[in-house]
């Protein structure tokens, strides 16, 4: 009997699913709509197909452009494409000094190539390319302006579009249909639907736990790849774009800053550090993001030391920490530090003990809804400025809400870790110990 091949995350092409093979070997000129559950192998299939198109199907001067909402997501796909090309077609990769692979492109000796750039909000940075195949990952999160900017790139060479994503609602807040949802009904697209429950790499135990943690609507969207209008985007995308205009300051004046952290254990999600500056008086203030930092796969003690290091640079007024789960360990370690111990404020969406300036302990109860309502108010009133950062925009735009059968508001996001840190840092507007802060 042939030896069973076990899935290798570094060589996923050895164990491709039937639908992945179908997609990779599809007619190169065919538009494809791929609706999938989370972690079902869409990015892997796209990266392999991009190499196959360049090496087998395209001729000199014909290019594949792969992109996603953020640069890092695009880089992951390009890195997967390069790993596949290096194993399957090492002699085809152009490694001349000016053509060797970079984080933005892979060129082949036949004159074809794979390009990778972030889509951003409106795709403006992509104008000017002529593309044979446009591969849009996370297409349900991309704005109609992005497609207006990119689709003309396909016209001259009669190129085609591959668009993939988990669902993210059918309509915008104004009632108009989203481009991704329109593609699902367009008969010119070859359509492939992949539920996470059909993916052999998801265990029944994992999916059962996901069902327990999520509402039925959340699970249907994220894992079953079902469109639903009951999940609604929490923040207005236009308001987010208007507020994401900030730049990282060239100089730091210690003492005017607040830190918000969303805690993650090693190997699980993002540990985020969101730094804001509040200026003005208690009744006439503005809040400005000055830094967005996140790490993954870092031990809790090391992540906590990062907070202490950041405090030595910014001299935070307050450090608002997610104290749920392993977060309480972060708070305990910080309180052992002589300088940080009185700056720590636990925010765990529940009743916790807070330490006042005079050392007195006092109970407060802060719900997740309070944090998000405060942030939404700041956005609507134009009192907050975020960094012009694709990761920040993507996280804010990922937040959705629904009302449960008991009319309880449920807020969540598939990429919410940065926003969770932001909601905590923005809580500085509730800090009544401050009267006046100098504009700086």
Task: From the structure above, extract its key features.
alpha/beta, Nucleotidyltransferase, domain 5, 2 domains, eight-stranded mixed beta sheet, seven-stranded mixed beta sheet, 13 helices
Offer a concise description of the structure.
This protein has 440 residues and is of the alpha/beta class. 30% of the residues lie in helices and 22% in strands.
Could you walk me through the main structural features you see in this protein, from its secondary elements to its overall organization?
- The chain has 440 residues and is α/β, with parallel strands linked by helices.
- The chain folds into 2 domains: 12-222, Rossmann fold (3-Layer(aba) Sandwich); 237-437, 2-Layer Sandwich (Nucleotidyltransferase, domain 5).
- It has helices spanning 18-24, 42-57, 71-88, 144-150, 179-185, 204-213, 216-222, 237-243, 300-314, 327-335, 368-380, 390-398, 417-425, and strands spanning 32-36, 63-67, 105-107, 113-116, 133-137, 160-165, 190-194, 232-233, 244-246, 257-262, 271-281, 285-295, 318-321, 344-346, 351-355, 361-365, 384-387, 399-403, 409-413, 436-437.
What share of residues are in beta strands? 15-25%
Summing up helix and strand content along with how strands pair, one would put the structural category as alpha/beta
Tell me the number of structural domains: 2
- Largest sheet entry: 8 strands, mixed
User: Can you give the helix content as a percent range?
Assistant: 25-40%
Q: What is the overall shape? A: globular
Mean pLDDT: 86
User: CATH-wise, what's the superfamily of the largest domain?
Assistant: P-loop containing nucleotide triphosphate hydrolases
For the terminal residues, how far apart are their CA atoms? 72 Å
CATH names the topology of the largest domain as Rossmann fold
Q: Return the CATH architecture of the largest domain.
A: 3-Layer(aba) Sandwich
Question: Mind telling me the C-alpha Rg?
Answer: 24 Å
Number of contiguous helices: 13
CATH C-level of the largest domain = Alpha Beta
Find the count of extended strands (DSSP E, 2+ residues).
Answer: 20
User: Low-confidence segments, ≥5 residues, pLDDT <50?
Assistant: 351-355, 435-440
């Amino acid at each position: 009997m042939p030896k069973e091949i076990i899935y290798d995350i570094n060589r996923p092409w050895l164990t491709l699913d039937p639908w992945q093979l179908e997609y990779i070997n599809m007619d190169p000129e065919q538009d494809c709509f791929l609706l999938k559950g989370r972690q079902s192998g869409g990015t892997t299939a796209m990266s392999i197909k991009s190499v196959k198109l360049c090496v087998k199907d395209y001729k000199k001067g014909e290019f594949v452009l792969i992109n996603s909402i953020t640069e890092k997501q695009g880089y992951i796909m390009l890195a997967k494409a390069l790993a596949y090309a290096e194993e399957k077609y090492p002699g085809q990769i152009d490694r001349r000094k000016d053509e060797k692979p970079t984080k933005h492109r892979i060129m082949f000796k036949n004159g074809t190539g794979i390009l990778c750039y972030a889509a951003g909000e409106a795709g403006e940075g992509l104008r000017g390319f002529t593309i044979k195949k446009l591969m849009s990952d996370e297409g349900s999160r991309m704005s109609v302006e992005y497609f207006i900017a990119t689709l003309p790139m396909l016209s001259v060479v009669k190129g085609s579009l591959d668009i993939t994503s988990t669902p993210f609602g059918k309509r915008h807040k104004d009632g108009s249909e989203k481009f991704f949802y329109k593609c699902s009904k367009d008969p010119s697209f070859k359509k492939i639907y992949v539920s996470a429950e059909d993916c052999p790499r998801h265990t029944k135990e994992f999916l059962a736990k996901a069902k327990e943690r999520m509402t039925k609507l959340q699970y249907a969207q994220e894992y079953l790849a079902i469109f639903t209008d009951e999940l609604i985007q929490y923040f207005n995308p236009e308001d987010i774009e208007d507020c994401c205009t900030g730049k990282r300051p060239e100089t730091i004046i210690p003492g005017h800053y607040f830190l918000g952290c969303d805690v993650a254990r090693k190997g699980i999600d993002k540990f985020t550090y969101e730094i804001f500056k509040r200026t003005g008086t208690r009744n006439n203030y503005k809040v400005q993001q000055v830094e967005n930092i996140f790490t993954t796969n870092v031990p809790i003690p090391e992540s906590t030391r990062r907070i202490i290091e950041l405090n030595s640079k910014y001299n935070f007024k307050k450090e608002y920490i997610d104290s749920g789960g392993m977060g309480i360990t972060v708070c305990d370690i910080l309180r052992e530090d002589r300088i940080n111990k009185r700056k720590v404020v636990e925010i765990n969406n529940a009743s916790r003990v807070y330490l006042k300036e005079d050392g007195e302990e006092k109970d407060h109860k802060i719900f997740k809804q309070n944090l998000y309502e405060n942030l939404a108010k700041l956005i609507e009133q134009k009192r907050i400025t975020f960094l012009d950062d694709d990761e920040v925009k993507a996280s804010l735009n990922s937040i959705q809400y629904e009302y449960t059968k008991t009319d309880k508001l449920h807020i969540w996001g598939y990429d919410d870790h940065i926003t969770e840190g932001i909601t905590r840092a923005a809580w500085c507007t509730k800090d009544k110990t401050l009267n006046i802060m100098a504009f700086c």
